[in-house]
Amino acid sequence: MAKRHDQRDPSQLREVAVTLDYTEMALASCLIEVGKTRVLCSVSAEDRVPPWLRGKGSGWVTAEYAMLPAATRERTPREAVRGKQGGRTVEIQRLIGRSLRSSVDLKRMGEIELVVDCDVIQADGGTRTASITGASLALRLALARLEKAGRVRAGVITSALAAVSVGIVDGQPVLDLDYPEDSSAEVDMNVVMNQKGEYVEIQGTAEGAPFSKVQLVDLLKLAESGIGQLLSLGDQILAEHAQ
Amino acid sequence: MAKRHDQRDPSQLREVAVTLDYTEMALASCLIEVGKTRVLCSVSAEDRVPPWLRGKGSGWVTAEYAMLPAATRERTPREAVRGKQGGRTVEIQRLIGRSLRSSVDLKRMGEIELVVDCDVIQADGGTRTASITGASLALRLALARLEKAGRVRAGVITSALAAVSVGIVDGQPVLDLDYPEDSSAEVDMNVVMNQKGEYVEIQGTAEGAPFSKVQLVDLLKLAESGIGQLLSLGDQILAEHAQ
Amino acid sequence: MAKRHDQRDPSQLREVAVTLDYTEMALASCLIEVGKTRVLCSVSAEDRVPPWLRGKGSGWVTAEYAMLPAATRERTPREAVRGKQGGRTVEIQRLIGRSLRSSVDLKRMGEIELVVDCDVIQADGGTRTASITGASLALRLALARLEKAGRVRAGVITSALAAVSVGIVDGQPVLDLDYPEDSSAEVDMNVVMNQKGEYVEIQGTAEGAPFSKVQLVDLLKLAESGIGQLLSLGDQILAEHAQ
Amino acid sequence: MAKRHDQRDPSQLREVAVTLDYTEMALASCLIEVGKTRVLCSVSAEDRVPPWLRGKGSGWVTAEYAMLPAATRERTPREAVRGKQGGRTVEIQRLIGRSLRSSVDLKRMGEIELVVDCDVIQADGGTRTASITGASLALRLALARLEKAGRVRAGVITSALAAVSVGIVDGQPVLDLDYPEDSSAEVDMNVVMNQKGEYVEIQGTAEGAPFSKVQLVDLLKLAESGIGQLLSLGDQILAEHAQ
Amino acid sequence: MAKRHDQRDPSQLREVAVTLDYTEMALASCLIEVGKTRVLCSVSAEDRVPPWLRGKGSGWVTAEYAMLPAATRERTPREAVRGKQGGRTVEIQRLIGRSLRSSVDLKRMGEIELVVDCDVIQADGGTRTASITGASLALRLALARLEKAGRVRAGVITSALAAVSVGIVDGQPVLDLDYPEDSSAEVDMNVVMNQKGEYVEIQGTAEGAPFSKVQLVDLLKLAESGIGQLLSLGDQILAEHAQ
Amino acid sequence: MAKRHDQRDPSQLREVAVTLDYTEMALASCLIEVGKTRVLCSVSAEDRVPPWLRGKGSGWVTAEYAMLPAATRERTPREAVRGKQGGRTVEIQRLIGRSLRSSVDLKRMGEIELVVDCDVIQADGGTRTASITGASLALRLALARLEKAGRVRAGVITSALAAVSVGIVDGQPVLDLDYPEDSSAEVDMNVVMNQKGEYVEIQGTAEGAPFSKVQLVDLLKLAESGIGQLLSLGDQILAEHAQ
User: Fold this and answer.
1) How large is the ipTM?
2) Do E98 and F212 make contact, defined as CB atoms within 8 angstroms?
3) Which residue of A77, D136, E75, F114 is most buried, as measured by CB atoms within 10 A?
C-alpha cells in the first residue's frame, strides 16, 4: 500500500476546515476547506417557488455552482463573459441541487425557495463533493434559523449529507483525490450518502479504464468511511456554532 | 413479484429493434427503438480534432444529443429557439461522449474527430441509455468503414458498449424503465458496461428516497443482465448487416 | 428535352411517399419522403395563443423548421449549440407558417395555437417545399381530430396546400430539383398553391442569372402540374388513413 | 379605378428623392426617400472575404438591414438589446444581399468584400424595396470609386437594379404600397428587376387571400412600370453626381 | 495658445446645428450636428413603467444609444449581429439616461416611460455629449406635447441640460474634441451641467496621463463656457420651433 | 458636523484590512476588506496580448469584476445564468482596467497580458473603489514577481493607485459611503488618484440632485485625504509582505 504524492494513506481524507457564517449578508453561509480546495456555500431564501410548484404549499431547494476565474492553476474564463454556463457547471449544480433535495421534506417548507450558491474560491480537486458537504451544513444552519423564526415547520431536514470523491489512481483505490490525482485517475467516482448510511448519488466514470465489480466494492467502502468522518465533523461544528 | 404496468416482468427489457443505415448521408447511422423510445444515431467524420489535440496524432469522439420538440407527450420547446442547450441535454451528451471514448483507442484513430448525433424522434423513457447503445453500434459500423477505407488503423474499437436504466419503482427494482415508471421511480440509475463485464459509467440518483447497499446490488445485477442481452443483439445485427 | 442526371424528365416529380402518424406523441404527424429528402412534420396543440391574439377568440398556426445535423452530406452544426437559429432556418419557418395560415380560418379555431414542427431527417433538396406539403397533411389530420373532439368548429381548413420547387438548370426549366440540381441552378423558385389553383407563395430567386418573363411562365406551369399531383396524392392518403 | 387613401392612382409611385453621399465616413452612401420611408444605404469595403472564398480571387457583396427603434409608429425594440436579429430582419438582409450579388461580377472584384448597410431612419412601408433601390445606387457609386482607385477591375457592375412592392388592396392591384396599404393588403409582392427587364427576385405572399394567375400578371406589369421609373431616376442622379 | 488642427481656438465649439422633428413617427425628435458628428435623438412614450415603479404613480426616463455601422471611418460591426451591446454602448446609454432623469421630476409624469433613442448617424468625436444635448432638447419638446395633450402635469422638466467634452491635447486644455483630438488626448472629460450652473455628471479619465488639480480647474471652466453656449442655442431653437 | 449612522466622522474611512496572497493559484492575490465590503483581487498572466497589440512589444492590463450572488442583502441573480454581464458590471470593470493601465508602463511589460479579477465576496458599498485599491496592490505584487523572474523589465509600475467614494448624504459631504449611505446619497463620486496627488479618474453622478462648484471642491478634498491614507497603508503592507 503505497503512500500518495502528498504522503496520505489511500484511505485518508485531506485536512478539512469549516467556517460557519463566513459572510453575513446571506441567511447562512459556510466556507469549507478540503486541503487547498475552498468553497463558499451561501443560502438565500426567496418567497416564491418555481412556476410548477406555485399554489401547492411545497418548497424548493436549488443550487448554483461557479468557480472564480483565478481559482485554478490556469485562469478559467469567466462564464458570464462567455455568455453561458458550461456543461460541467450545469452538471455539477444539478447534482448538488438533487442531493440537497433528498435531505429535506419539501412539503414541510411551505412556499419558500432556498438557493444555495457554491462558489469555488480555490480549486484543487473535489470541488463538487466539498460543495455538497458544505452546502448541506449551510442548509441545516439556514433551516434552523427559518424554523426559529417561524417561517418553516420543524423537521424540514430529514437527514444530514456529505460527499467525497474516490477513484483508482495508479491501479490503487484512493479516497478524496486532489487535483494531481484527479487528472491522472483511471476511475473517478463521486458518492453522496446520508447519516443512515444510504446512497443519495453514485456517479462513477471510467474515461481512463473501465472498472470491475471488485474495484467498485472497494471504492464504495472508501467513500463510506470518508463520508462518516465528514458527517461527524459537521455535526460537531454545527453543535458548537449553535451555542 | 408484481407485473409492471405494461405487463413486463421486473427483469424484462422492452422490445428492442435496430435499423442500421436508416439514413444515408452520414458515415453510418442507426435507428434504435426500445419500446416507444426511438433514437437516430448518426456518425460524421471531420478531418480536424479539437484544439488541445492538434498535432498529437490522436483522434476524438464526441456526442451531441437532442430531442425533437414533438417527441414528448407535451411538446418540448426547441433549444435552438431558446438560444441554448438545457442542462439536461448537456449532461446527457457529456455522458454519451465519455462512454463512447472509453470504448475506443483514440491514439489509433489518427487526427480524425467523429461526432455522434443522437436525435430522439420519440421519447418514452431511457433515451440516454438507448442513445449510448445505438451510438456504440453506429460507431462500430463507422469505424469498420473508415478502417476498410484505410483512414484509421485496425483496432480502434476496444470494446462494445451498451447501456440500460434500472430503478426502484413502488419499492421494487426493475429493468429498463419507461416514461410512466421513470416519473414515479424512487431511484433511477443508468449503467453503461462493456463486453468484458466492466463498468464504464454508473449514475445512480435518489431524488425520491435514498437507497441501501442491498438495493444497489440488486440494481446492478438487473443492469448487467439487460446489458448482456443488448450486447448480443447488437453483435448479431452488425454481423448480419456486414454481409 | 434532355433527361436529368437521375433520368427524370424535366416535368417529373421524384418518388413521393407519405406516412401519417409516423410518431404517436404528437396530435398528428406525417413523414414525407420526396426522393431522398425526408421530413417529419408533427402538430402539437397549445391552449394559449400569442399575446397579440389573447381574448380575441381567434387561433394561430405557426411552424418551426430544423435539420438534423447529419441530414446533409457535410454535417451541419447544430443550431442549439451555436446558440441561435440561422437566417435560412428563420426564413423557411416563416414561409411554412404563412403558407399554413393561408389555408385555415383562424377565427373558427378558438384560442388554440397549433405548432407544426418540420424536422428534416435527411436533406436532398426541396426540404422547404416537402415541409409545406407534409405540414399541410399533418395539419388537416390534426384539425380533423380536434373537430371530432369538439375542440374546434367545423370548417377550419379552407383549402389543401402543396408546394414544389422549380428552377432553371443548364438553361432548362425543371420540376422538383434535388440537391445536385439545386446547387447548380441558375434560378430557384418555390411555389405554394392551393386546391383552387391559386397562388399562396411565389419565391423566385436568381442568384445565378436573372430570368425572363417567358421563363417565368414556363416555371409556373411546371409548378402547377407538380402541385396538382401532390394534392391528389395527399387527398388519397388522408382518405385511406381516415378509414 | 378608385383613388388610393393618399390620392395616388393605382399605378403611381410615391414621391422619390435620392441624396448621394449623405454621410461621408463610408466609401459611398445614399439616402433614399420614398414617401415618408427613408433609408440610409452605406457601402464599406473590407480587404478580406468570407472564409469559403479565400484564395479564389473572387469578391463578395453582402447586406445588413436594420430599423431605428423610433422609425415606426410604435417604437420597435432594439435588436441589439434583445440580443439577436429578428426573423424579418434576417430575411430582408438576405434578400438585399442576393439581389445585389446578381448585379455584379464577383470575379472581377478581386478579394474585396463590400458590406452594404441599409438603416431605416423612418418606415412607412416598402423599406426592403427602397433598401434595394438605394443600395444598388450606393454600390454603383462605390464601385466607380474603387475602379477609379485601381482597386477593382472595370465592369464589376453588370446591371442596375431597382425594386418595388406591389399588392392587392381592397381587391385592386396597386403599385408601391405605403404602411396603411401594406397592413390591409390581401397580397403583398416584392419584385426586383434589372435594366434588361429581367427578374432578379419575385416574392409574392398571400397571407390574406390567395391570388389568381390573372392577378399575378397584373401585379408583375405594375412592378415593371415602377421599376422602370426608378431605374431612370437612379441613372440621372448618378450621372449628375459624377460631374 | 496654439490653434488646433482644424483652426479652432482651444475654447471654441465646433459648428452646431439642430433640426427639431427631423423624423415624424416619434413623439418628438431632434437631429443634432456638432461638426461632422450627427446624432438623431427620438423620444417615444410607453404607457407602462419598469416593474419596480408600477403602482407608485411615478414615471421613468431611459435612453438607448447606438452607432450605425457606417458612422465611423472603419465600419463598426453591428451589435445586433454580434448578439449584444458592447461595454462602451451600455456605459454611454446609462450616462444619458441618468443625466436626463436629473432634469425631470419623475413624480409629476404619472406612470409613463419615455425612451430616448440616440442613434449616431455619423461619428467624429463627442457622440455621447451630443447625444445628451440633443436628447434633452427632444425630451423638452416631447414633454411640452404631452403636457399640452393633458397626459402629464406641468413642470415635469426641472432644468435644461447640455453636455460637452473637454480634454488635454498636446498638453493644452481644449473644448469639444473631435475624433482626431480624442484619439490622442491625454485626458478626456465629459461634463453635463444644467441651466443653474450645477454639475450633473463629471466623468474624467486619464488613460494617457493623470492630471493635476490646476488642469482640472481649467477643464471645468472650458466645459462651463461651452455648455452655456449650447444651452442658449437650445433655448432659442425650441422657442422658434414652438411658434 | 453630525456623526454618521455608524458613528463615523464625515471624513473618516471605514476600517480597512488587506491580506496579500489570500489564495495561491493566481500569480498574486489580495483580499481587501473595507468595513463589511470584501473583494478578492487576483492577478493572472497570459502569454498573449489582445489582437490589436500583437507584435508591438507592448503588454496589456485588463480587469474583470463580479459579485457573488449572495454578496448582497438581497441575492443578486448570477450573470452567467442570465447569459451576460450587466451594464453596471461592464462599466465597473472598464473603470478598473483603465485605472490600472494608467499606473503601468505597458511598453516595459513585453507581450504579456495581466488579467485582474475582482470578485466581490461581500458588498456593503464602495465595491468598485475597494476593487481598484486592492487590484493595484495585487498588481504591484504580481509585477514584482514577474520582474524577479525576469519576465518583465524593471519599472513597469509607474505609480501606486488607490480609490475611494465620496458623496453628499443628507446635504453633508462624506468620505467612504457604505451601502445605506450610498442608497440615499444625493451625489455619488468615485475618485482614483495616484501617489503624486494626480487624478486618474473622477466619476461624479448626481441622480438625486445636481451639485455646485463649492460642493465639488469639498468632495475632492475628502477623497484626497482618504486616498492618502489608503496609499500609506498599502505601502506598509507590501513592504511587510516582501520581507
Assistant:
1) 0.94
2) no
3) D136
